[in-house]
Structures are given as C-alpha cells and as structure tokens.
Amino acid sequence: xxxxxxxxxxxxxxxxxxxxxxxxxxxxxxxxxxxxxxxxxxxxxxxxxxxxxxxxxxxxxxxxxxxxxxxxxxxxxxxxxxxxxxxxxxxxxxxxxxxxxxxxxxxxxxxxxxxxxxxxxxxxxxxxxxxxxxxxxxxxxxxxxxxxxxxxxxxxxxxxxxxxxxxxxxxxxxxxxxxxxxxxxxxxx
Length: 189
Fold this sequence. Notes:
Elements: E1 2-8, H1 18-37, E2 45-51, H2 59-68, E3 75-80, E4 88-94, H3 97-107, E5 117-120, H4 128-132, E6 137-142, H5 147-150, H6 163-182
Parallel strand pairs: 1-2, 1-3, 3-6, 4-5
Antiparallel strand pairs: 4-6
C-alpha cells in the first residue's frame, strides 16, 4: 500500500522553476528525509514522485498512471504540491466524507503552527488521473498573494523561496503523509 507525495521538476521556458515547482519537489523530498531522520517506519510505503512534463500536458503523470493503474486499490492517497511553497494554510482534499473527517482530525495535529484548514477539491495535473478513479487526493494550500508575481517568469529563482515558509510546508507534508501511512486502515473510498 502506497502513500504518494509529489511535486514536479519542469520549469517553464524562463526562470529556474524554483517556486514552480521546485518548492513542491523539495518539500516532498524533505518530508521523506524528516521521517527517515526521526527513525519512523510507517505501516505503508511512502513514495516520492518528482514528476516531469507537467507543463507539456502532464505526460509524465500520464505515463506513471499507465504503468501503475493496475495497482490502484493499493494507493491510499496521492498528494501534490504545485502552487508554490509560501505560508501554508492547510490542504485541499478530494475523497469520501469519511476520509475527509479523518484528514480533518489529522490536520488538528498542526494546530501549533496554525495550519489546520481542509478545503474542498484537491487539484494537481499530476494526481488528477488517480483522483478521477477514486483515490483520495490532497494538494497543499498556501498564500498565493505573490504566486503570480513569479509564476512562469524570469523572477522564479531560489531567492523567491523563504526557508521558514518552506519548513512549514514541509511540516504539513510530513505530518499528513506519515500519519496516513501509519494508520491501521487505508482511507475510506
């Protein structure tokens, strides 16, 4: 059984792609790194996918889906960060009402950093195939007020990234992915 966390590595035609979507790739990598450093071993596999070709029609995600869809019942949740890694406010979630209640309970663990909201309708080019077929999905929600200042521009460089805000995003990704991966049962479909 698999809990998939992800971001993509396909900067657009200008800039470095540090925010879109290097930040999402980084926090996904960091989540696994933190879990390993803490010596935690969840019941399910945590899988990091660093997608390619998202800007070119999601060809990397489609290829991955085609290769793994025969095991779709083993995918517990698919998570994608693709709207920058600014100050997080919560998760957008797509799934059953029972699964949403569980995610809301998990998010209460993040009260100390004030990131507890669960929004409707997760979104992400790279996880949409899975959600369409009934796998629960989550996408990071963060402060988008500056996102389009840098999106697909020469300004999308490492200087856009705020280490403190990225740490908060990584904390959200780490807690949610680990708790879901370590629950007794998979999220209800």
